[in-house]
Amino acid sequence: MGWRSADGEFHTDAGSAEASQAAARFGAEQTLVEYAAQARTVRQRMRYRLLVPRQPDTLAMSDPAIVVLGLRSLLEAVCDEYRSEGNHRESVTGWRILPHKDENKECGLVAILLDSCYVPCPELGDPSNDIDPADAVFEDFLRSHAVILTPPARAYLAGLSQAGPGELPLRQRHEAAMRAVLAVGGEAADLLTADTGPLPDGMAWIDLLDAAALDDFLASTEPGPPQ
Predict the structure, then answer these.
(1) Taking a C-beta distance cutoff of 8 angstroms, is the pair 13, 2 a contact?
(2) Exposure winner among 123, 168, 190, 215, fewest CB in 10 A?
(3) Which stretches in the chain have pLDDT values below 70?
(4) How many CB atoms lie within 10 A of CB 89?
């Protein structure tokens, strides 16, 4: 577990090997005292869930535990999966969306991407485990753990399932998701620039449907500020 201090730095308890049972008990008590003092910002270390979940409809940006998840982080996670898929192509049959985690503890694509971004994802037994990321119930799960999606990130996650059901190639799911992002219209270009950084000369947003172009883009640009 860990907590975020007032200056935004994340602190975590890494555990320790105490010299005696009494010393171990004392160390545990002191850790609990620290957790209690920071209870509203404490997150589980591997699951990234809040110790004190929020009411999704009342979550405010002033909440000290807020994590803003933007499109660039999701795209970087997708590129990591592309590389992994290329190294283990014979064992990759496709990428499903639902359930987010099955009875064998295998994760769907959305869950894998969220975990790569260090934010919680639905698990077996959660009401949102079988909920499409395009559904407001899914976003409520994230908001209950103080995770806010930028508009492009929201559109991307929702678009992953638009490629179709079952296990599909990652390129196919990514292309459908990027088309969903680009279909927003209006201020889409400004939102994308703020979320991912500006496009290099000679590149258009639609080029990012291609995995190789996406990888080059991420390698050559700086991330934009969270919105």
Answers:
(1) yes
(2) 190
(3) 1-19, 26-38, 88-92, 185-187, 224-227
(4) 8
What 3-state DSSP class applies to 150?
coil
Using CA atoms, how far apart are residues 175 and 194, in angstroms rounded to an integer?
21
32 to 13, 39, 56, 137, 181: CA distances (angstroms): 10, 10, 27, 32, 43
DSSP 219: H
pLDDT in tens, 55-84: 999 999 999 999 999 999 999 999 999 988
Q: What separation, in Å, do the N-terminal and C-terminal C-alpha atoms of the chain show?
A: 26
pLDDT tens by residue, 25-62: 766 666 656 656 567 898 998 999 999 999 999 999 99
Alpha-carbon Rg for the chain in angstroms: 19
d(CA 161, CA 176): 8
Q: Choose among 181, 200, 226: nearest CA to 73.
A: 226
State the amino acid at position 66 in one-letter form. Answer: I
How would DSSP label each residue in 16-67? Answer: ---SSHHHHHHHHHHHHHHHHHTGGG-B-TTT--BSSPPPGGG--TT-TT-E
